[in-house]
Amino acid sequence: MGIVKTGIWLLSTGLVLTNLTDYWNILAYLAGYGIGTLLGMQIEDMISIGDVIVRMFVPGDPQPIMAELSAGGYGMTRIEGSGTFSHSVNIIFMIVPRKELGRLLDILSKNYPDILYTVEDVRNIKQGAKIFFKDPKKRVLGFFGV
User: How many CB atoms lie within 10 A of CB 38?
Assistant: First the structure.
């Protein structure tokens, strides 16, 4: 995939740079670059491979959100801290499969719209590390061996 991408980039860039007076070539190059970037982002979202780190900053008592997310199958780690504008803040870290991120963000936006959160890609995870996420349906069915 990388070889094809590099080949297309070299050919298209070479065509544009050899004839800088042709504005249609420059416009086509810019449009192709932009559309390719947007399509690549959409494909990456559809494939949903890998994991993400979700970091939530919860002022006050974090127990209601932790209980709801835990019931939904999400594992988390809580750290207490303080900030400039808030004397007490709880930071909740979660490693979530990318395919589950949409469901988590729906819960946060509907039930906790005031919570600040960040999402980052995970580049590497320790070999054999356990991601603390379980689908609640699979948990119940797993008890019966299904």
Answer: 10
Starting at the edge strand that comes first in sequence, how are the strands of the sheet with 116-121 ordered?
Answer: 77-81, 89-97, 51-59, 116-121
- CA–CA distance from 102 to each of 25, 54, 62, 66 (Å)? 39, 12, 21, 18
Convert the pLDDT of each residue in 94-141 to its tens digit. 998 888 888 999 999 999 998 999 999 888 777 766 666 666 555 555
Burial class (CB in 10 A: 0-12, 13-18, 19+), 112: middle
What's the rounded Cα separation, in Å, for the pair 54 and 66?
13
Strand-pairing partners, residue 128, are none
Residues 94 and 58: beta-carbon distance below 8 Å: no
